[in-house]
Design goal:
This protein has about 160 residues and is an all-alpha fold. It has 6 helices and no strands. It has helices at about 5-30, 35-50, 55-75, 80-90, 100-120, 145-160. α1 (about 5-30) runs antiparallel to α6 (about 145-160) and α2 (about 35-50) packs parallel to α4 (about 80-90).
């Protein structure tokens, strides 16, 4: 099953602000706040009952637990941060299983664009606008919330524009 215009249109007004907040917060403090993750889950729990058929709703909710387990393993191995794992798990129910390959492409492109943009901004006059962001001071650590939130936002927007 792919994302439908209907479900994307229901989710997007609630999901997009959370995505932008997560990106901003991670750049500012290198942390994805738990309340943003819980808000994303709450949106799925409430809006999902309206936006999705009940069978899809149950299966999509199971995505949260699968991705959380994978995220915990990656976090234990030091490959991703705990906030990144939690946000990815909270975002997972919004992704239709049939769109997994599409999401990998979206995330890959978003990750590359976010990394390049963040690095360029770090050494540009833009940095003067927000000189206290912690992400500027990190070596190779990167505020993954920028890419994770961006990818989910792009997926929602594409769902509205081109959904099944």
């Amino acid at each position: 099953m792919e994302i439908t215009v209907w479900s994307a249109a229901w989710f997007a007004p609630f999901v997009l602000p959370i995505c932008f907040y997560v990106a901003w917060s991670d750049m500012r403090s290198m942390r994805i706040p738990n309340h943003s993750v819980l808000a994303l889950i709450a949106v799925f729990v409430v809006v999902g009952l309206i936006a999705l058929p009940i069978v899809d709703y149950g299966w999509r909710f199971s995505h949260l637990f699968v991705v959380l387990l994978i995220g915990m393993l990656l976090n234990a191995g030091g490959l991703i941060g705990a906030g990144d794992a939690k946000f990815a798990a909270a975002a997972a129910p919004f992704i239709a299983f049939g769109d997994t390959k599409l999401l990998v492409v979206i995330f890959s492109a978003t990750l590359l664009a976010a990394w390049i943009t963040h690095r360029l901004a770090k050494y540009s006059p833009v940095r003067r606008l927000v000189p206290d962001w912690e992400s500027w001071e990190q070596g190779w650590d990167f505020p993954m919330g920028l890419a994770l939130g961006g990818a989910l936002a792009i997926y929602m927007i594409l769902g509205i524009l081109y959904g099944a």
